[in-house]
Amino acid sequence: MSENEIWAAYEKRLLRVSAYIYEHLDEDMDLDRLSEIACLSAHHWHRVYRAVHNETLATTVRRLRLHRAAGDLVRSESSVRDIAARWGYPNLQSFTRVFAAAYGMPPARYRREGSHRAYAPENDKETSRMFDVAVTTLPEQRLLCIPHSGSYMGIGKAFEALYGALFSRNIFQPDMRMIGLFLDDPELVAEEKLRSFACVTAGADIPAEAPLVSRTLAGGDYAVLRHKGPYANMGAAYRWLYGTWLPASGRSIRDEVMFEAYLNNPRDVPPNELLTEICLPLQSVAAAA
Question: What Pfam families does the entry give (predicted)?
Fold first, then answer.
């Protein structure tokens, strides 16, 4: 087999395992079962996984579970103890210790004081000073994408598939930027019907062969809010951008897809150091006039 054929085989195995992890994240992970899905012995499977993803399987599972737990803390009224139990922690103490190590504060304090609180209505005046929005003009950009349906919190599964395809086909390039496209409003559309795309920027010379699809990011004016902190906190930033910044800006929304540009990687930095640009398409001043 050629090198490309070997990596294509690994791509399919990794996709099967990644899908299983995302679909069974709130269950105990049976390493033997994952090895069966990968069609490799546990000894070899762990090494292949780490070589491709640059982290161990245990690290992936822990990171994803904490990400989901952070989302529950932000968006639900469930007790911290119940959230800990849901995501596989045997007691509140162990959950608190692991969560604080990753997010910089214990879960109860995170719920009260996390970066999502900066965009709360009572903080509007402070927020307008602290969170500047830059209006910039962006060029048209081609994207290579993997479609995702369901909760936006689960788009990581599509990014896993995307990077697996890029690396196995030897078409990944270091200057590719990571982009998330979100087509629906999660407050209006049922979670299971939400549509999104995990994407990277790409030149016209790179083919989009299944499961990859090609999309075009429209050029033009965008309001860009740079968010620092966990992905789970960004819902409040969106509401602030629409509800506070936009009316005060005097600008109008353009009928194009909103997107997120990810400036670093959750595999490489802790959640509190994640940098994301939330990009809202605007009509040009001339068109608005």
Answer: GyrI-like, HTH_18
